Protein 1
Amino acid sequence: MDRPAIIRKTAADLRLPPNLADYAATRAAFSWDAVRAELAGLPGGRLNIAHETVERHAVGPLRDKAAFRFLGAHDTRDITYGELSRLTNRFANVLKSLGVGKGERLFLLSGRIPELYVTVLGSFKNGTVVSPLFSAFGPEPIATRIKLGEGAVLVTTELLYERKVAKIRGELPTLRHVLLVGEEGRATNVPGTLDLATLMAQASDEFDIVPTGPEDLSLLHFTSGTTGTPKGAMHVHGAVATHWATGKYALDLHAEDIYWCTADPGWVTGTSYGIIAPLLHGVTSIVDEADFDAERWYRILDEQKVSVWYTAPTAIRMLMKAGAEIAKKHSYPALRFVASVGEPLNPEAVWWGKEVLGLPIHDNWWQTETGGIMIANTPAFDIKPGSMGRPLPGIEAAIVKKESDGKVSPVDTADTEGELALKRGWPSMLRGYLHNEERYRKCFAGEWYLTGDLAKRDADGYFWFVGRADDVIKSAGHLIGPFEVESALMEHPAVAEAGVIGKPDEMVGEVVKAFVSLKKGFEACEALRMELLGHARKKLGAAVAPKEIDFLPSLPRTRSGKIMRRLLKARELGLPEGDTSTLEGGA
Ligand code: ATP
Ligand code: MG
């Protein structure tokens, strides 16, 4: 179906006055110092994320407002800002009583249960650095990360400990304490561990936040491992300024919002935007403890009256795959803004939002390394489906070219492909890769942080993702971004997901090969393959269209939902698969 290249916004599309109404004026007037002045801060120029997110509200009018609403298997539990303050004080006291100090590292391995959120924020209060792990990781990736991070404490559940950690405990000499959450609230009694609930009950609910400065470490987040071995990105308390500004401008949070971020805190989106940004803005966050289920998700959007929803392309594609009928069983009158991050958002998905939810999906771009949203479509922006939007206030983004001497310079001409770079110095920029100084140094060239993603900027200042530098296909003198090919395939009604790779070829360098999974009701067959090849050729032209298409029941993805093209390629070529620690369904 041919659709307009731009979705124009009118006043009727905005149910609340947008926080970013005048893009140019807000950018021009913006300063990070002014944002820092909006934060409460601690005496002596100190700053602590837990103070900004929790304490500040717990002593004010938001004290009895729900900070989180946990949707469990059987029940719903609200935790107010006041309660969150007391619980996190208790947890900080638990750490203190165990002799865990500032700068030491605590690892977290659990589902999205209240204890996870209390642990993260309580650790901040104690100056302890948190490293959340995805709960579906197997023993091997857990051990690797705890070893690399020299973890002093692990907070996990009894079940996860017995299944995954007990057998590797002997390999983790730095781990002094393991705190367990019992199943269904029962106390635990596992040798070599402590029962968290018992310690919490004994601890005081008053605590003086350990004085942390803006440059003190807060979080250690491992990247998704889409392109190779995950890197441990180190973040600081001062990052909270970015979370405040992006919560305001990119997510457009308003005090009365009911906000749902579907990302797991095992990934940076789940902490930056599942914990920190919404609390900063005093909104109520929905936390769904269960895994993805299309029916359940539509019900949550409806019943919880979600107004701002932050999700990911992989989830949207799964909803698309499940069919629009399920969506129609519900209605979403409260929903006013939907945003997505993590992977390129195919235009098809943007339009799907408009048709099924009544709102287009707003793509935004960032990385574990950037700590927060950098480029975004915000409520007041016209959307160009397929574009990531424009750099937020305070963010200078450019397409850069590398010179022969290693220096980089911005490319001024519109629509030129090149590496996406950001002017260094925004508050949530990573401060290092753990134990990998050299890799960290390579991220910078002069004043520019190099993202490793290829993109282009159009004449209106919108950025368009082309592909990761590693994934770009060189075919007969053309540079082909997989995203373009995947988006064209997604426009075919049978296609649920597409992943595109370059397959070495003697004649042309690489030929484009696509892997697709199909929507419900479609069968993989030769006729459909021919039809898809023809469809792609018509959309893209013969030079860019795939020469080969294979059907797969589903594509290999990271646990954070990204298509692992490197794995499609390795499998196609019979090469070693490399680090698969983050592969969904893997060990
Ligand atoms: P690794 O660095 O370990 O290979 P990763 O880069 O996937 O993993 P993340 O930091 O979770 O780890 O993901 C950031 C990357 O995700 C970006 O560099 C980009 O390639 C992709 N990405 C995120 N948002 C978008 C978006 N809106 N459009 C296109 N790509 C995106
Ligand atoms: Mg990366």
Note: The pocket of magnesium ion (ligand 2) is lined by residues 223, 227, 367, 452 (CB under 6 Å).
Protein 2
Amino acid sequence: MSKKLFIETLGCAMNSRDSEHMIAELHEKEGYETTTELEHADLILINTCSVREKPVHKLFSELGGFNKRKKEGAKIGVCGCTASHLGEEIIKRAPYVNFVLGARNVSKISEVLHKDKAVEIDINYDESEFAFKDFRSSPYKAYINISIGCDKSCTFCIVPKTRGEEISIPADLILKETKKVVNEGVKEIFLLGQNVNNYGRRFSGEHEKVNFTQLLQKLSAVDGLERIRFTSPHPFHMDDAFIEEFAHNPKICKSMHMPLQSGSTKVLRDMKRGYTKEWFLNRVKKLRQECPEVSISTDIIVAFPGESEADFEDTIDVVKQVQFDQIFSFKYSPRPQTEAEHFTNVVDSEVGSERLSYLQELQNSILDELHQKCLGKTYRVYFESLIKDNFISGRSDNNIVIKVKGSEELLGQFRDVKITEIGRTMLTGEIVA
Ligand code: SAH
Ligand code: F3S
């Protein structure tokens, strides 16, 4: 009988791809199959996120629960960003943990498995050309990494300390992987990097110099590939050439994530984001001029140290002007090894919670209005998942989640869908062609 692996993945899309890599390595090299039953597992992995404090606190209570429920002799490994930043401390606080594997070391999963109490967390380790074994959780769309690490130094963010410096994956490897998944039937790829439009600044060996715009051009020439998505671009690197390629290349989905963080130029400077409120609005204007159908999502942090009422008003002003299609909003959470951790002008926690609720309520009312406008419109949907009550769901080119009554023969298919009902997270429609 094969050995069983239970894996829990927290955090971002990059963590999801790292988990797929570990599943593939463990399957090919060690004979593991995944299970959703923790009690049956021979190996339990938690792939952690450390971007905010809450998930880190939760980790230890969760580990305790896993240790009680696991079957005798099962191993527990902690991987990902919290592994990188806490390292040995994890084993000190939870001595039953068998190994700790950092976010930039996932290629070593089958090595650490055999070394009890191993701690592999070198953030300078270069995995940019490592040939991972292949596993994908969806046969319809594929995550493809284009770079590792991040070279920015946003003062609130722990990621550069957990994923190390930025190195681009050579374009020929990305192209090869894309052709392979398309041959296997995938029609949509999702390019991943912390800062995708900074692609090509540094490779680890001698490689053809290709920037992100050129990479998009190369990938869109692959026959059989229909859709390209990517996350996250940085507003600072949104030059005209990139926006024009995005707008006019028919294979690129018209959905742009533009992480604003704050609408106040002063706060943006304290965050070291490298752009101003005016630059951000100017990029949105250019984007909408070139591509009127684009949907724009963003990330916003409220109550960053020193954020005054007037600074928060600037954020609200940008939210009202831009009318984002989706906002991921967070209350600032101080992180170890970041510059902002030492800022003393903290915003009162209650004020932070009030600002967050205000922003979220405003966004809900904007969304209700935006969705009203979708009623009766027709979108091309790529179906990816079966959901309950005989519905099947997928996304429009501009990233709206849409469900229709239907069964699995629609999976991996494109259909035109007319919207008949609206909801906050998903719209309902009927197939018209
Ligand atoms: N380069 C990635 C950023 C990863 S972190 C990207 O652009 O998507 C994802 C989001 O978490 C950030 O955009 C930010 O809004 C939020 N975040 C990061 N550090 C945070 C902190 N210390 N407190 C609150 N939110 C934070
Ligand atoms: Fe973090 Fe800024 Fe990089 S948010 S991941 S340091 S672009």
Note: The domain at 3-120 is CATH 3.40.50.12160 (Rossmann fold).
